[in-house]
Amino acid sequence: MTTTTLLPDPSTPLSRESAREAFADILDARASEDAIATFLVALAERGETSIEIAEAARALRQRMLPIAASATAVDVCGTGGDGHHTLNVSTAVALVVAACGVPVAKHGNRAASSKAGAADTLEVLGLDMDRAGATAEASLAEIGIAFLFAANHHPAMRRITPIRQRIGRRTIFNLMGPLANPAGVTRQLIGIARPDYVPLYADALEQLGTQAALVVSGEEGLDELSGAGSSIVASIGTVDLPARITPDDAGLPRHPIESIRGGDAAHNAAALQRLLHGETGAYRDAVLLNAAAALMVAGIAPTLTEGAAQAAEALDARRAEALLARWIAY
């Protein structure tokens, strides 16, 4: 049946109430597919506001299938879409941070614009996605890590996905993954591929009640802290970093971004296995830098240097490697 609900004109910023109603109509299928496509494109061309980002996330959160989690749980997640096709940094960071004793509810998906998303790489490593989804709540509570496959927790997105594919360009929904974690985490390290969106995204997080978060973007347009040079940072809540940092701030060397260029899921999984088994180099240093930031968000590292040292110890003692093996067998 064709719906007739009209979406607001997005040529000017929407009020909080208008944005809330618009995204409810979109996610509850009260607007036509053509109307949704037109709305999303116009919103992207004008540039989303923090209110619109927050209300889209709030609408998605209200419709997701949640899991229970400790208040100390964190997520390390990027928006993707940076076009650099790097190795799976945030996936490795999740294992390292969890091996440091911090519960990690890793929200993720299969690749959209990259060659290997978190789910693709973990699957090659031996994690059964169906089982990991069914046992996510238990594995988070018992071994300190879970993978929350986005498709399993956001049924409202099933209608939106083909519309996004038809549009074929970035929309506000490309920003939603880190803002709609099914574990309801309030501590996050979030990487976004657009440095100019860092303050907007941080403002949206504050509106959503985040306790502690770092929103980061490598100046190359990388959706994580850059191991090559400077990154833009916004601090929210109980964590605080300067607005621009480099690997030097964590006592780490710099590496060109090409040194962590990834490939398909098999290639990235092999690199992750070598990392966990003790290989040093650019990939390890990128993971240490981002893990250090996540450990600051979790409140167990006072500085990036201390966080990098804790992360290095978790790798060197093979605790991250052992955790992956336990997770696969769970």
UniProtKB/TrEMBL annotation:
Q: Does the keyword Amino-acid biosynthesis apply?
A: yes
Q: Where does anthranilate 1 bind?
A: G78, N109
Per UniProt, where does Mg(2+) 1 bind? S90, E224
Instruction: Cite the binding residues for Mg(2+) 2.
Output: D223, E224
In terms of superkingdom, the source organism counts as Bacteria
Q: In which pathway does it act?
A: Amino-acid biosynthesis; L-tryptophan biosynthesis; L-tryptophan from chorismate: step 2/5
EC main class here is: transferase
Q: Which cofactor does it need?
A: Mg(2+)
* Residues annotated for anthranilate 2 binding in this entry: R164
Q: Which residues bind 5-phospho-alpha-D-ribose 1-diphosphate?
A: 78, 81-82, 86, 88-91, 106-114, 118
Q: What range(s) does the Glycosyl transferase family domain occupy?
A: 72-317
Question: What EC number(s) would the UniProt record show?
Answer: 2.4.2.18
Q: Any note on cofactor binding? A: Binds 2 magnesium ions per monomer.
Any GO BP: L-tryptophan biosynthetic process
Task: Name a single GO cellular component.
Answer: cytosol
Boundaries of each Glycosyl transferase family 3 N-terminal domain copy? 13-63
Q: Which is an annotated GO molecular function term of this record?
A: magnesium ion binding
Which reaction(s) are listed as its catalytic activity? Answer: N-(5-phospho-beta-D-ribosyl)anthranilate + diphosphate = 5-phospho-alpha-D-ribose 1-diphosphate + anthranilate
Q: Which UniProt keywords apply?
A: Amino-acid biosynthesis, Aromatic amino acid biosynthesis, Glycosyltransferase, Magnesium, Metal-binding, Transferase, Tryptophan biosynthesis
- Tell me how this protein assembles: Homodimer.
HAMAP family found in the cross-reference section: TrpD
Q: What protein family is recorded?
A: In the C-terminal section; belongs to the anthranilate phosphoribosyltransferase family. Belongs to the anthranilate phosphoribosyltransferase family.
Q: What does this protein do?
A: Catalyzes the transfer of the phosphoribosyl group of 5-phosphorylribose-1-pyrophosphate (PRPP) to anthranilate to yield N-(5'-phosphoribosyl)-anthranilate (PRA).
Protein name, entry field: Anthranilate phosphoribosyltransferase
| Gene name linked to the record | trpD
